[in-house]
Write a structure and sequence with these properties.
Its EC number is 2.7.13.3. There is one protein chain. By secondary structure, the protein is of the alpha+beta class. It folds into three domains: 172 residues, no CATH class; 102 residues; 153 residues, Heat Shock Protein 90. It has a five-stranded mixed sheet with strand order 2-1-5-4-3. The chain has a five-stranded mixed sheet with strand order 7-9-10-12-11.
């Protein structure tokens, strides 16, 4: 529908406002016309009465009646020298219904009286009082009918309304054309640019070029240009990352198989008779284990999403002991690391044991590697407690703490890595798995005294 468009509503509002303005002009104009009409009748009546007074006794009755008809009144009364004198008279068709004094009328009174005559279809007789022309007396009074007055007011009002209509339509059409040219056309051009860009947002040629001269439209085009530029850049970056991720996933898959085979050969090196080989074998196995784990993490992150957890009621203490046992074995041969476990034996929760195992492994392994990087002894503490429908698992270490950059990008893939050679996927995967359980993973503290993470999980669903 036309009037649901911006142009249609603007056209409609323009016509309404112009008509309201014309109405505000119409009422004073009609009131002014009525006042001029009555003053003209007073002037004609005064001329007729002066003609009679100039020739007393010589004017016949028919001539007096003709003077009254030419003046458009029934009676003429002059007040001169404090004497009120009926100069001309004729029979009144009905009693006088109202008296109007035009000697010092107010604007509101004139408009009110004009509207009263305009909307009263009855032909009434009224008395009008005014000042004589050229001070020929104190005042002059006439009686006349409102019918002729109303007829002329309606005719005058009709001309005013037609003129107002022409002005309104002309103004509306001109404004409509101006709005179409200056506002609607640029807006439509902006919408077309947005639609064209949406068809292929990666195509930089479709980014809008700001050309508007109207400040508001230019600001909108500038904002859209910046948004499209940023979005196109992000899409290109994501596309390159997706391609890179696919390549890394394929490489990691093949590399994991190669490293697994290498790990089997490294196991046999421990039985070598060469003492140097036997000493190097654990370190080689440890390095191979880390490389295999990195490949597995990369492959897991390359998936669109982790599978939903298979929730079962599990005991937390045995699961923590299994993870700690694996890390104690991996820590053998390195500076002494003490593992402290404080998990109540009867603490149970609803969780996916395999996914929770991965979460704890990632966090405890990060803590172990942070202490190993210092070359000094240290400790890792795993604690848990229940309360308010949640289980809070804390993993703290006495390592050097996280650098500022790592804290700022802690859960961002490929940006939150701390260890040299790491890619920052462990914490990202752990946080994703915890969210899948309806919980959250958060950094509780990190300073030169060490780092502590907390896992908050609901006890049951």
């Amino acid at each position: 529908m036309f009037f649901r468009t911006l142009s249609g509503r603007f056209l409609m509002l323009t016509i309404i406002f112009v008509m309201l303005a014309e109405i505000l002009i119409f009422v004073p104009s009609v009131a002014r016309y009525r006042e001029d009409y009555l003053l003209a009748r007073l002037e004609r009546a005064q001329i007729a009465s002066l003609s009679l007074l100039a020739s007393p006794g010589f004017i016949e009755e028919n001539l007096a009646q003709e003077l009254l008809e030419n003046a458009g009144v029934f009676n003429v009364v002059l007040r001169r020298d404090a004497v009120r004198e009926l100069v001309l008279s004729s029979p009144l068709p009905q009693p006088v219904s109202a008296t109007f004094d035009l000697r010092d009328p107010g604007a509101l009174a004139l408009m009110r009286d004009a509207m009263a005559v305009l909307f009263d279809p009855e032909n009434r007789v009224i008395r009008v009082i005014g000042d004589p022309v050229r001070e020929a007396g104190l005042l002059i009074e006439v009686t006349l009918e409102t019918g002729p007055l109303r007829a002329e007011m309606l005719e005058y009002g009709e001309r005013i309304l037609w003129l107002s209509l022409v002005i309104s339509v002309s103004t509306a059409v001109l404004l409509f054309a101006a709005v179409q040219l200056l506002m609607v056309a640029p807006i439509r051009q902006l919408v077309r640019a947005m639609s064209r860009y949406a068809e292929a947002p990666e195509d930089g040629r479709r980014i809008i070029t700001p050309t508007a001269r109207v400040r508001e439209l230019r600001e909108a085009e500038d904002a859209l240009h910046d948004l499209q530029t940023q979005l196109t850049a992000n899409l290109r970056q994501k596309e390159r990352l997706a391609q890179l991720g696919g390549a890394v996933a394929r490489i990691s898959h093949d590399l994991r198989n190669i490293l697994s085979s290498a790990s089997l050969f490294a196991d046999r090196m421990e039985t070598s008779q060469d003492p140097a080989v036997r000493r190097a074998a654990p370190k080689l196995l440890n390095s191979l284990s880390r490389a295999i784990n990195l490949c597995e993490n990369t492959l897991a992150f390359g998936k669109a999403e982790e599978p939903p957890p298979s929730l079962n009621r599990i005991a937390l203490a045995p699961l923590v002991k299994d993870v700690v046992a694996n890390e104690e074995l991996a820590a053998s041969g390195t500076p002494e690391i003490e593992f402290l476990v404080d998990v109540p034996p009867g603490l149970n929760l609803s969780a996916d044991s395999e996914q929770l195992f991965r979460v704890l492994t990632n966090l405890i392994r990060n803590a172990r590697q942070a202490i190993e990087a210092t070359g000094q002894p240290g400790s890792i503490e795993v604690s848990a407690k229940a309360g308010d429908g949640n289980v809070v698992i804390g993993i703290g270490d006495t390592g050097p703490g996280l650098p500022a950059k790592a804290r700022d990008n802690l859960f961002t893939a490929f940006q939150g890595g701390v260890r040299k050679g790491g890619v920052g996927l462990g914490l990202v995967i752990a946080a994703e798995l915890v969210r899948g359980h309806g919980g959250r993973l958060e950094l509780h503290r990190s300073d030169d005294q060490g780092t502590e993470f907390r896992i908050i999980l609901p006890t049951g669903i």
